[in-house]
Amino acid sequence: MSESGTSGSSRGSGQGARGGSRRNAQGRERNRGPQRGFTESAPSQRTRRADPARLVAFEVLRAVAAEDAYANLVLPARIRHHGLDKRDAGFATELSYGALRGQGTYDAILARCVDRPLDQLDPAILDALRIGAHQLLAMRVPAHAALDQTVGLARAVIGAGPSALINAVLRKVSARTLDEWLDLLLSTETDATTIASIRYAHPEWIVRALRQSLVAHGRPAAEIDGLLEADNAAPVVNLVALPGVGSLDEALEIGATPGELVEGSALSSGGDLGRLASVRDGSTRVQDVGSQLVARAMAAVDLGTGPGAKTGTGLGTKASADLDAEAETDSEDAGERWLDLCAGPGGKAALLAALARQRGAHLLANEFAPHRAKLVRQALSAVPRDAWEVRTGDGRDIGAEQPESFDRVLVDVPCTGLGALRRRPESRWRRTPKDLVDLGPLQRQLLNSAIDAVKPGGVVAYVTCSPHPAETTAVVSDVLRKREDLELLDAGAVLDSVSLTGHLEAGHELTAQLWPHVHQTDAMFLALIRKLA
């Protein structure tokens, strides 16, 4: 895409514009003449069509706002629908995710430029303004191109009348840089939480929650700015080759680089990974390295009776790093049954199934929702069928239905997702403190079911993609306090054993917490719980 975008052609002659109603047969307002100009261009030079990349971004924001859709699911489909090439797809991705991430900051700026409360604007107009604001303030798009193309988009999909408003507002936005706007907005603010909320585009309650989370997991509260900034950085795509099944060769040939944290991983700067045969067949998958680490940690815990079991490290007498190398000949895991209690959509289950197959174990992947269970089956399809099966049912029932039946259980519970805000940019504006209250009982019920389902001597990995103590340490503490047959293992030490660095500095009081600003992963939490024999 050129930085100025595509100029496009006229959408019609606007017959009868000099008299009578200003709306045409389709109900759109007609051009009101050059004195109400939409851009600095003459009327004949104004863009009157939607640039495809900006149209994709607009459609993504509309789907997120109007249909409660997820941007990461809508965006690829819209890119394919409009046939964008690699460059335009990259532009649409940055514009979509950037406008969603920065929504709070942009809305604060737009509120200074609109003569009415933002909630009184048509939602489509507000989405177009956010798209324009992101181009003007955070992308290397010339101001004239951002104005012209955004107004052209508005004329094409909203109408001529609204495009006049959008033009006027964006002209005011373009009068200052982002830093100048922030200086203006924050000039009278003294509250640190409010300042961080506006500067880093996070709701105030999330700023407070993440600051509390840092302290709860043994990190300084002063890291909050770095954490919020990391949430706003476009994440690198993480890949994993399923052990014994997939290969990273294709990905490395097109520019991916080997991962630095975990074996069998790679980092990709983008491109159409769907054209790789290994990605299409599912043997190589897109998966955050934090998810890879917690899945491998569950598989690595020693279940023997050696020193590891006595000291509570969970490592036993054999370093976990040796397990993969010895997988073909080592029979210590043979016959084990593994359970992924909340398997949908199947990323961790696929990795676990491949590891189970290497070690002669068998995985049961459980998912409550039938449509997500279908996704789990698709995710597992690259692994030979004799290593896994999928169950559709409520995970809270498995502990009673199949008591003490599994050697290893992963329970990746439903959570607020506060640890994945960089990958799910719309989540920060959807979640509320009430979600923490609503999810707490379910998280405890699922963990108790997992503990009931594991054999004496077996291990449960409690995982969340949230660092909030209400979803992490509080849940684990509550469950352990009510039972006398459980032991908390050193999750940080086990994570170190499955990492390539061997020193993640993620452990705190036996649990482990990964961070975007420290580990460049999602903020995954891990607790490893052994049921005592």
In a few lines, what is going on in this structure?
The protein has 533 residues and is α/β, with parallel strands linked by helices. It has helices at 52-67, 71-82, 86-101, 103-111, 123-138, 143-157, 160-173, 178-186, 192-200, 204-216, 224-231, 249-253, 277-280, 289-300, 307-311, 321-325, 347-358, 370-380, 395-401, 427-430, 433-453, 473-481, 491-498, 516-519, and strands spanning 237-241, 257-258, 265-268, 284-286, 337-340, 362-367, 388-392, 406-412, 454-464, 486-488, 507-508, 511-513, 525-531.
Describe it for me?
By secondary structure, the chain is of the alpha/beta class. It has three domains: 34-173, NusB-like (N-utilizing Substance Protein B Homolog, Chain A), CATH 1.10.940.10; 189-231, no CATH class; 288-426 and 435-531, Rossmann fold (3-Layer(aba) Sandwich). It is built from 24 helices and 13 strands. It has helices spanning 52-67, 71-82, 86-101, 103-111, 123-138, 143-157, 160-173, 178-186, 192-200, 204-216, 224-231, 249-253, 277-280, 289-300, 307-311, 321-325, 347-358, 370-380, 395-401, 427-430, 433-453, 473-481, 491-498, 516-519, and strands spanning 237-241, 257-258, 265-268, 284-286, 337-340, 362-367, 388-392, 406-412, 454-464, 486-488, 507-508, 511-513, 525-531. The strands form two sheets. Strands 5, 6, 7, 8, 9, 10, 11, 12 and 13 form a nine-stranded mixed beta sheet that branches. Strands 2-3-1-4 form a four-stranded antiparallel beta sheet. Helix 1 (52-67) runs antiparallel to helix 2 (71-82), helix 4 packs across helix 5 and helix 14 packs across helix 23 (491-498). The longest helix has 21 residues, at 433-453. The protein is globular. The termini are far apart. The model is unreliable at 1-45, 305-311 and 316-331 (pLDDT under 50).
